[in-house]
Amino acid sequence: MKLLKDILYKVAIESVVGSTEVSVKALHFNSQNIEKNDVFIAVKGSAVDGHDYIEGAIEKGAAVVVCEVLPTHIDASVTYIEVVSSSKALAIMASNFYDNPSQNLKLVGVTGTNGKTTIATLLYQLFKNAGYKVGLLSTVVVKVDNKAYKATHTTPDSLTINRYLKEMNNEGVEFCFMEVSSHGIHQNRTDGLQFEGGVFTNLSHDHLDYHETFAEYRDVKKRFFDQMPKQAFAVVNTDDKNGPVMLQNTKAKKYTYALKSYADYTAQILENSFSGLLLKINGSEVWTRLVGDFNAYNVLAIFATAELLGLEKVEVLRLISELKSVSGRFQYLISESNITAIVDYAHTPDALKNVLETINSIRTKNEELITVVGCGGDRDATKRPKMGHIASALSTKVVFTSDNPRGEEPEAIIKDIESGVEPQNFKKTLSITEREQAIKTACQLANPGDIILIAGKGHETYQEIKGVRSDFDDYKIVEKLLKQLQK
Questions:
Q1: Helix or strand or coil: residue 410?
Q2: How would residue 212 be classed by pLDDT, with cut points 50, 70 and 90?
Q3: Is there a contact between 256 and 264 (Cβ–Cβ < 8 Å)?
Q4: How far apart are CA 135 and CA 163, in angstroms?
């Protein structure tokens, strides 16, 4: 049990009806989870307004209601806290309720369109290999040192974040690496957290179904750095024109990284092959098993972050050479018949372009590059023609297919993708709605030496169609199909 007045510390309060000296058992923003002596925070979401569920929460035993608008009927047995922003209040109260766990470890947030999962996961891996107890909050998985939990969101809700951070405190975790999504920043899920550092990767076309304009998307990302304290560090990619924008108003110590321009941390690509990269980082050579220009940026961000967190340069370079690729991020296999299959999460135009350009820079051009790609339903539809254009322009053959259609008709999504294909590239393309059949067709089209890229889903192990999720793992499916074709 916690005293209400203690968990309201630093919350912007408009008015109080009732006593703040009451003891409360738990915080919830979902009224279904309320029990006796709990606090219900009425949050206005994009689809549901928590204010509509205040009465139901009280009936279930809520002792306290936190809201932006006081209800017309006031229950004398309940304390009401009117706040400026319920989502901000939730984040700060969650942190207070769990004893401000972010203050007891070094928390680093990674934000940007592409590279968040790779950087956060490989930092976790690097610091584990260095002998530390480490936490990870990512799209793929949540890790409390050696314990793994299933991830549900790129950036979880504030209660979940703080609950995991508290568990990390209990396990003696020293460092935690966290993906910070634009949704999470916009919905104030990271408010109330104390960050040791922040990393900005890049910004490209994504989530415009949610943010509406690119400028709004950029400014939401920038807000993460605007809120950083002066004792923290901010390290940004200045080869991306939005990198300097992120640093404009931050109080944090400013650092930059780049491959193509002057920066605090720079790298040259000396060798690039399917077996890895040879890089020269700030004058020192290092070999990594990661592949492609985009991973050179990721490695540089990892190097900068590790050094800024206090690791020695020579030790960081050694640890980088030991890193293993992240599930669903340029994850590849070579079949017995010498067909290379690559599975990658590339689900934005920029990410798809990066992966295809990487493959084209490595391959000899004597082999076919066959791309299987789709786009998710109920998401930003404006990127679909761009994905179609990029896939058809940079591949020798393309199979358009379903990704996670969700509530949309798969054929309608594929038509949107096809609309971006230029006339000279039509003959390269075909469309197969069923994703496994599309992958099978790509395998049948491939000859020894050819390369198949399966893009869009990466680490995901499901496919969602009309609200129903079924098992679907691109890597396992292509591995199975290539073995069957070899028999």
A1: helix
A2: low
A3: yes
A4: 12
Lookup result for tokens 């991830």:
151
What tens digit of pLDDT does each residue of 298-314 get?
A: 999 999 999 999 999 99
Residue 358 has pLDDT above 70, yes or no: yes
Rounded to whole angstroms, how far apart are CA atoms 226 and 64? Answer: 32
- SS (HEC) of 214-239: HHHHHHHHHHHHHCCCCCCEEEEECC
Positive or negative: CA dihedral 166, 168, 169, 175: negative
How many Å apart are CA 380 and CA 124, to the nearest integer? 31
Tell me the pLDDT band of 211, cut-offs 50, 70 and 90: very low
| CA–CA dist 129, 351 (Å, integer) | 28
| CA 235 to the chain's CA centroid | 18
pLDDT tens, residue by residue, 361-386:
999 889 999 999 999 998 889 999 99
**Strand-strand pairing, 233-237 and 253-258:** parallel
**What pLDDT does 487 receive?**
59
User: Interhelix angle for 474-486 vs 435-445, to 10°?
Assistant: 40
Helices (H) and strands (E) in the chain, counts: 16, 26
What's CA 98's distance to the chain center, in Å? Answer: 24
**Alpha carbon 8 to chain centroid, angstroms:** 30
pLDDT band of 276, cuts 50, 70, 90 = very high
**Sequence-distant (≥ 6) Cβ neighbours of residue 467 within 8 angstroms:** 406, 407
Phi/psi of residue 315, nearest 5 degrees: -65, -40
The tokens for 105 are 């470890």
Structural tokens at position 288: 């990594």
What Å distances lie between residue 359 and 332, 354, 453, CA to CA? Answer: 12, 9, 9
Confidence band, pLDDT 50/70/90 cuts, at residue 471: very high
Task: Give, in order, the Cα–Cα distances in Å from 232 to each of 103, 106, 198, 238, 309.
Answer: 12, 10, 8, 19, 10
Q: Is 297 helix (H, G, I), strand (E, B) or coil?
A: helix
Backbone angles phi, psi at 207, to 5 degrees: 60, 25
What is the Cα–Cα distance from 367 to 440, expressed in whole angstroms?
A: 18
Say if residues 113 and 201 touch (Cβ distance below 8 Å). Answer: yes
How far is the C-alpha of 291 from the C-alpha of 294, rounded, in Å? 8
Query: Cα–Cα distances in Å, from 241 out to 44, 201, 218, 314, 477?
Result: 34, 11, 11, 31, 39
